[in-house]
What we know:
globular, alpha+beta, five-stranded antiparallel beta sheet
Amino acid sequence: MRPIVTIVCLFISVSFAFAQPQKKASSDPEEAKEHYKHYNYLMAMPIYKNLLAKEPKNTEYNYRLGICYLRTHLNKAESVKYFEAASKDPKCETDTWFFLGRAYHLAGKYDEAIQAYTKYKSFVPKDKKEVEKTDHQIEMCNNAKELVKFPVNITFTNAGPEVNSEFPDYFPFITADEQTIFFTSRRKGGHATAVETDGYFSSDIFYCPVLDGKWDKAKNLSPQVNTTLDEEIVGLKPNGQELIVYIDHIDADKIENLYVTHYKNKMYTKLEKLSENVTN
C-alpha cells in the first residue's frame, strides 16, 4: 500500500489585490515600469497584460509579465507562455532561458525545463556561480522525474479563517506542545496604515493559541515587537518563551539584523539586537 500523508496547510499565501475597489488598469508602460522597479508585481501585472493586448510580440512586456507571475503567489505556471514568447526573440535577455526553465520546472514539465536550463548554461559557460546554480536546478528536475514515478497520497487541510487571511501569511512556527502558532503576516489591521511600494502592508508577527481544540483568532503579537516597520519571525524556542525576529529598518546602521524578544509578565519584551557574533 502507498502511504497516505496528511499535511495541515497552515498558510496559503494568496497574492490577490486587496478586497477594495480597484481602478481599471492603465496601459502606460512608464507606470508599469515604475511598479516593476519597486517589485510591486501585483500592480504591474494588469498593466503589462493591457500592453500585450496591443503588442503581443513585445519581448520586454512578455518577459516582465512572466517575472510578475513567477514572483507572486498566483499561478506561477502561467508564466510559461510569456517566457516562451520572449525566448523567440534572438535578442532576448539571456536569463529569459533560466526563467523559462524555472517556469517549466514549476509547471511539472521537467524535460522542457532541463532543455531551457541547458540553453541558459550555453550563454554563461564561464560564470561559475550561474553554472552551479543552473546545475542545481537541473539536478532537482531529474530528482523530480524519479519521485513522480512513486506518487504519495497527500491531504492538505487549511488552518481556517481564524489563522489565514487574504494577505500573505508565512513563516509558521509552532511550540513543542502544539498549543500556539506564531507566524508573519502582511495583512491589513497590523501597525501599517498604508501599503508599501510592493503593494502589501508592512509585515507584523501574529500568534494563535489553541482554544477548545481549535485555533483561536490570530492576534498581533505585541506593541513592544511590532511597529510600522517590517518584523518577521525566524526562530522560536520550543516553549515559546523566546522569539528570534528579523527586522528591516530604514536606518542605515540597522538594516537586516536579527533580534530577540523574551516572554515576561504575560507579554513579549522590547526587541534586543543579537550580539556581533551573530549580526553585523
